[in-house]
Amino acid sequence: MAASDATRLPDFDDVRAAAARLAGHARRTPLLAATPLDELTSGRILLKLETLQHVGSFKFRGAYNRLAQLDAAQRRAGVVAFSSGNHAQGVACAARLLGVPATIVMPADAPRVKMQNTLALRAEVVTYDRLQESREQIAARLANERGAVLVPSFDDPDIIAGQGTVGLEIAEQAAELGLALDDVIVCTSGGGLVAGTALAIRALSPATRVWTAEPEGHDDHRRSLASGRRESNAPGTRSICDALLAPEPGVLTFEINRRLLAGGVTVGDAEVKAAIAYAARTLKLVVEPGGAVALASVLAGRIESAGRTIAVVLSGGNIDDELLREVLAG
């Protein structure tokens, strides 16, 4: 399929097809078991380490799945994406592997490591002021001027299906361990990762509950799931979790998530910092703020864990050195 039908809801067959496309390109990241979290929570906590995916984030999966389906003319024209960093790196990496020119619209205050990594992958970066300008408008203008394909960060069926391979792997890896999953907790912004994961989990482990984890002030999914309609976050609300600042759930993602998710949980920035520190000191893992929200929800007791088997997605590991030092010194 050369062009994505942006209005089509993906299903589990699309996740399976994405997994076939990603074979040999994306890493099958570990599902880490038997950590000190088990004793701490009186449960069995399984950590899905998307921090070890290409470019340090799950975003490579959806980006590669989308770009691999471009036709020859589209590949020559290139792609445009907008992102605070992880989708930027995922698109840039996939584009480089496939020989596709890539332009990324990034906030000027994006974490330095994400900006540097995107540039190192030879993508063109166009910066903007996230408080004054619309990244969507800038990206749409660039795509129109260049005849390029716009690659959304979450509200696209091929992006959702690619991210869904995380859930596919979780279900397969838990089964390989002989474990039945009670819950899966997913760091959530626009909802592409949790929607794709829910499609896979519902198909392979239908009794398992899937939850969103979001930072305070950006809990639009939690509120949307409770109200039954898409809720927006207050303009200007900030969080340490730079990767999770989408203003509202996607149209496609919410249509999937309202049917498949159990609900959502929320944690504060202090709890996220505590999770980053715990991951580094105790688990020996480097996790960025947005990638640590699901872990923070377990450590803070937002999800009942005693006697339960819970998969926690660590969705990204791209944290600036300065912030990591600050967290560990705190």
Please describe the topology of this protein:
Layout: H1 12-22, E1 31-32, H2 37-41, E2 44-49, H3 59-67, H4 72-77, E3 79-82, H5 86-98, E4 102-107, H6 112-120, E5 124-128, H7 135-146, E6 149-150, H8 157-176, E7 183-187, H9 192-204, E8 209-215, H10 220-227, H11 251-260, E9 263-267, H12 269-283, H13 293-299, E10 309-314, H14 321-329
Parallel strand pairs: 2-10, 3-4, 3-6, 4-5, 7-8, 7-10, 8-9
Antiparallel strand pairs: 1-2
Structure characterization notes:
It is a single chain. By secondary structure, the protein is α/β, with parallel strands linked by helices. The chain is 45% helix and 15% strand. The protein contains 14 helices and ten strands. β4, α6 and β5 form a beta-alpha-beta unit. The longest helix has 20 residues. The N and C termini lie far apart (50 Å).
Overall form: globular
Largest sheet geometry: 6 strands, mixed
The order of strands across the largest sheet is: 1-2-10-7-8-9
How would you spell out the order of helices and strands? HEHEHHEHEHEHEHEHEHHEHHEH
Number of helices: 14
Mean pLDDT, all residues? 96
Provide the structure class: alpha/beta
DSSP strand (E) fraction?
Answer: 5-15%
Could you estimate the helical fraction of the residues in percent?
A: 40-55%
The N- and C-terminal alpha carbons lie at a distance of 50 Å
Low-confidence segments = none
Q: How many β-strand stretches? A: 10
**What is the CA-atom radius of gyration, in angstroms?**
18 Å
